[in-house]
Amino acid sequence: MNRVVITGLGCITPIGNTVAEFTTSLFAGTSGIAPFTTLFPEPPTGDPGLRFKHMAEVKGFDPYAHMTSGAVVATERSAQLGVVAARQAALEAALRDHHAPENTAIVLGCSTGGRHAEEPETKKLYTTNGRVHPLTVPRSMASSGASQIAIDLGITGPTLNISTACASSTHAIGLAFQMVRSGLVTAALTGGHEAPLTFGFLRAWDSMRVVSPTGCRPFSADRDGMTLGEGAAILILESLASAKARNATIYAEILGFGMSSDAHHITQPKPEGATAAIHACFRDAARTLQETDQPGNAQSLMEEVGYINAHGTGTVVNDQVESAAIHAVFGARAPHIPVSSTKSLHGHSIGASGAIEAVATALALHRGQLPATATTQTVDPTLNLDLILNAPRPTGPTVAISNSLAFGGLNAVIALRTFA
Hints:
The protein is an alpha/beta fold. It has a single domain (4-417), classed as Thiolase/Chalcone synthase (Peroxisomal Thiolase, Chain A, domain 1, 3-Layer(aba) Sandwich). Helices cover 38% and strands 20% of the residues. The strands form 3 sheets. An 11-stranded mixed β-sheet has the order 5-4-6-7-1-8-15-14-9-10-12, sandwiched between helices. A two-stranded antiparallel ribbon has the order 2-3. Strands 11-13 form a two-stranded antiparallel sheet. Helix 13 links the parallel strand 9 and strand 10. The longest helix is centred in the last third of the chain and has 21 residues, at 271-291. The radius of gyration is 20 Å and the shape is globular. The model has no long low-confidence stretch (mean pLDDT 96).
């Protein structure tokens, strides 16, 4: 069994189109949530008819600056974001120089597929009986991004996409971690991408009454919902032995992965499900320690946790459920573990959220600095959490977890540790 580390990062997000830009915004508390200026495609009447006026858009992204015109035509915005983020991560890790393409996996999370490909063609079909673009099917597949990245980078190993709503990319990272840890592959390109900010998608979410009309404020006493976003984030995973042999930059070590199903309700989460996923993550992390001859067990790792990157959507129910799970797992320590939700900065990009948050967590461990929950001013006292507010908080070497709790009761948690 291999120890698994993160040696490359890439991202296109509402708070930065490179890792350097993302890092600056993350620790400065610069939010990418803003009044929206357009919808894709435009609403039929010009009036979107939405209760909310904010979303977290990727800004200044021109696919033609990164891809050939043929590649742009063959792809949709979500896959385009994924391809460019993957290039960034692969370049930093020198992936193709050190790992054979057949021994490299691509495991991505994308939940909603190609909204920007589907909606314009559906509009033409039902309003004018117009001819549908011949590439609509490959452009709208949820797995399109994984295939396009494989083509772009020449990777021929196991390549797949996972669609589990808001847990998609955390499930993807966990599976990629297991593949590298077991030796099935020598490296993995993993993470997620999503571009769901279309008229139809926003109207569908508006109907659920869970999107904030004022702005996402996770764990706040006056929270009133999530803010939708888009983006892509990619991580390169490889064995510690491989990374050390070539003196690669190591952002963090991945220790474990846990997942569970609430088996309860399609939209209403249950604390027991999230609790089970966190416990499963620490049992898996203990197995990593045992089989790589390191000291410690599940309980000792739980006592080392010094940061929780929360799912933290800002809805009343989700934040209550996640807080209850944290208390159920950590007991008396729960009110003293620093927690933040970076969705307060980059919004909720559905299937890509877990990947963006994993990048944020890896950067936090690497820098010894924990990002704040930028938009929350007054923490809901009933949650009894140590929410990081106003400014980043310094930290020493520690263990962190990143939670993803999806519709359908699908939960995924990864545990990372500072590498020194």
